[in-house]
Amino acid sequence: MIKVSVVGAKGRMGSHVVDAVNGAQDMELALTLDAGDDLHAITPENTDVVVEFTVPSVTLDNVLTLIGQGVDVVVGTTGWTEDRLEQVRQALAAAPRADQAVFIAPNFAISAVLADYFAKLAAPYFESAEVVELHHPNKVDAPSGTAIHTAQGIAAARQAAGLAPVPDNTETDGGSRGQVVDGIHVHAVRLRGLNAHEEVLMGNAGEQLTIRADSFDRISFMPGVLLAVRKLAEGSHAGLTVGLDRFLDL
């Protein structure tokens, strides 16, 4: 049995993780912690893998503390930058265990991971590309980590193919052109009634490709979370891994 502790257990995502772990035949729930609880209660003796679903403002400190505790961590909280990822890498280099692992997923929904993958495949074949992400108004970061990750992947694929920058003659936009991520415009919508949605738009003269992933309920993230827990529990993914696609044999 894989012993799993959940940090952020009372949150919208954390509560689903608790239910998913309780429903998994190969896992048992160890500890459930939330804001104000002492993460030092989590140790290798009582926990194999921690699932961390909190908020961007505290997730880095949580992960660094859990690395110091000698446990593997699956992170679903978004808001990660390259600088923050590098701090995790440095902490892992000095971790109590040489095989210690941290996994960070911009998105745990299989549909979103596949949409991201398909976007990278398509990117070299289109002159234009933009990303639109749509979420519920309670989401605290914008654009979403998923959309940023998608834009970065599109940009890298375009660069590898030697494409010119995306054409855009806009001179003054008043902020309407969204955030530019590695040359790709990313737009964020916050609307009551939505959950988590992403649309990748690609265009050439006379044609357009749309790749869209829709997650209508947070339960859609749970198969990805449990997959990540199982992969880390195998002990063969030391260091930092980013993106569920790394575990899908794509």
TrEMBL record:
Its EC number is 1.17.1.8. It is an enzyme of class 1 (oxidoreductase). InterPro entries: DapB_C (IPR022663), DapB_N (IPR000846), DapB_N_CS (IPR022664), DHDPR_bac (IPR023940), NAD(P)-bd_dom_sf (IPR036291). Pfam families: DapB_C (PF05173), DapB_N (PF01113). It comes from Bifidobacterium pullorum subsp. gallinarum. This is 4-hydroxy-tetrahydrodipicolinate reductase. Catalyzes the conversion of 4-hydroxy-tetrahydrodipicolinate (HTPA) to tetrahydrodipicolinate. NAD(+) binds at G8, A9, K10, G11, R12, M13, D37, G76, T77, T78, A105, P106, N107, F108.
